[in-house]
Amino acid sequence: MAQLEPTKGGYYLWKYLPSxxxxxxxxxxxxxxxxxxxxxxxxxxxxxxxxxxxxGFFEFAGYCARTSAHNKTGRIMPYAVQNFxxxxxxxxxxxSIYMCLSRIIRGIRAGHHSLIKPRNLTRTFVSGDILSxxxxxxxxxxxxxxxxxxxxxxxxxxxxxxxxxxxxxxxxTAVIFQRRIKSNPTNESCDVSIPWQxxxxxxxxxxxxxxxxxxxxxxxxxxxxxxxxxxHEWTLYIFDSVLMFAVTVVYYLWYPTWxxxxxxxxxxxxxxxxxxxx
Length: 278
Hints:
278 residues, single chain, mainly alpha, Rhopdopsin 7-helix transmembrane proteins
C-alpha cells in the first residue's frame, strides 16, 4: 500500500498521498481538450493558438506525473515534473490570449483605439509572460531540492505576481479598447460576419479564470509548505484544475476561427495606419 515517504535527505515533498482517480480524470480531460483545440488550430491555420495547445499538453503531462507520484512520494522526479507542468501551463494559455487581442484589433481595423500599437501589444505582454514563465520555472527547480523551500516559494510568488500584474494591465487595455470601439466603431466592427465581440467575451472570461487561479496560487505559496492549502489536495483541484479545464472549454467553444492569416492580410499597411490617435 502506498504511503508518504521522505526523500533521501529526510524531506517530505508531499503532505498527502496524491489521488490517482482525480489525476487520471484530469489528464484525460486535458488530453481531450488539447486534441480538439490542436485539430481546430490545424484546420483554421490559427497558429497563434499554438502556445495554448502546448499549455494544454503541459497540464496533461502534469497530471500524468501526479498519477505516477502516488507510489513514489519519496522521489523528486515525479514531484518536480507535476509541479513544473501544472504551474506553468497557464502561462502558455496567457500567451495565446495576448496574441488573440492583437489580432482582434487588427481584424476590425481598430488599432487607433488601442492604448498600445497592435504590433507592439503582443510583444509587450508576451515578454512579461515569458519573464513570469522563467521565474516560476526556476523556482520550481529550487523547491524540489528541499534545501531551501522558502526561497523557492518566494520566487514562485514573484513569478505569479508578474503574471497577475500583466493580466491586470492586459485587462485594462482590453476594456479601454472595447469602450472606445463601441463609442466610435469602424466599418469592420459593424460587420455581423465578424464575431469579434464574442471573441472579446471569451478573452475576458478566460482571463478572469486564470487571474483567480493565479491569486489562489499566490496565497497557497504565501501560507507556506505547512499551510492548509498546500496540505490539502482538494484545494488544487477546485482552484486550479477545474478552473484551467474551464479555460480550455471556453476557449474551444468560442475559438477565434475567424482570425485567419487571410483575414489579417495587409498587416504592413495596417501597422502604419493603426498608430494611436494623437
